[in-house]
Each structure stands twice: as C-alpha cells, then as structure tokens.
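Example 9 (inverse folding). The structure is encoded as follows.
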C-alpha cells in the first residue's frame, strides 16, 4: 500500500495528480461514503455530497499543510460538506435542521439502499434526536469505530470533550430506545 507522504507528494505534482487522485479515490471513497451517509441518511444525497467532497479535495489538495493526517483532513471536508448540504436543504424546504433529519429518517423505509431492520430504524430515529455534534461523535465512534484521537483531528475538539459527548449521546439513545 502506498505511504501517505508519497501519495501526498504525487497529489501535489502536476504530472502525477490525476493518477494519484484515482488512488486516493479508491482508498477512501467507501469510508467517506458511509461517513457522509451516516450524516445525511439518504443514498442519493450521500452520493451527491461525496462527489462534492472529492471535488473540494481535488481543488484544495495544494492547500493541505500536513498539520493532521490526510485522512482527518478529508473527513473534516466530508463532515463540513454534509452539514452544509443539510443546512441548504433545510433552507430550501424552509424547515429546521431537525425536521430535515426527521424527514430523512422517515424516508429510510422507502430507500432501496437501506438494509436495516426495525431495530436499525429505531436506532436511526434515536440518533436523529441528538444535537448535531453528538450525532457526529456517536456515528464516528459507534458505526465507524474511529479512535478519539482521529475524531479530535477531524472535529477539531479535545478528546475529553468527545468522550463526554459520546457518553451523553449513548445515555440519550438508551433513554429513547427504552421509552419508544
């Protein structure tokens, strides 16, 4: 497997950028897709956001300073693109972000790409009741099994704050699942 430093060097090279970008796409598209899908819920929306994410990565790779891992930088872009997408959707539909989330959850049952059962759907409904930051932290820890250190780089928050957010999110989800 190609080293991150070598891939980064190729991405910043005018002659190797396109070839290196194809490698980057293969390495990260599935992980980024599922990260985005966890936020926006819909397959079609996740595809759109993923495409926008990779366009932004391609256009801005020269600005990547290496202060964090390339993976963390891309996840941050994917997260921001997902949140921007949800905000735009809420504005377009003239509803709150919470209502956009609820709409997405309600549409999961008709989404041919959603393979979850009733329990998965109930879990998604519980997650949708959380504040945005807790949703992100819960999804990244529970579904993606990211380490707090990586999440800290992606979300630019301390590990302690992330652990607290995750703990609170779990308690709220347990309460929701018990009551519903």
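The amino acid assigned to each position is listed next.
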């Amino acid at each position: 497997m190609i080293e991150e430093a070598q891939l980064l060097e190729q991405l910043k090279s005018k002659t190797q950028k396109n070839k290196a970008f194809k490698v980057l796409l293969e390495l990260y598209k599935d992980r980024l897709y599922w990260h985005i899908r966890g936020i926006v819920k819909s397959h079609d929306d996740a595809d759109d956001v993923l495409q926008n994410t990779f366009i932004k990565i391609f256009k801005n790779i020269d600005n990547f300073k290496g202060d964090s891992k390339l993976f963390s930088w891309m996840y941050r872009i994917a997260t921001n693109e997902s949140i921007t997408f949800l905000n735009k959707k809420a504005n377009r539909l003239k509803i709150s972000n919470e209502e956009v989330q609820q709409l997405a959850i309600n549409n999961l049952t008709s989404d041919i790409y959603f393979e979850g059962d009733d329990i998965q759907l109930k879990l998604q409904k519980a997650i949708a009741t959380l504040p945005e930051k807790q949703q992100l932290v819960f999804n990244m820890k529970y579904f993606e099994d990211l380490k707090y250190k990586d999440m800290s780089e992606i979300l630019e928050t301390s590990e302690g704050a992330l652990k607290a957010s995750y703990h609170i999110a779990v308690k709220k989800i347990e309460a929701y699942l018990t009551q519903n």
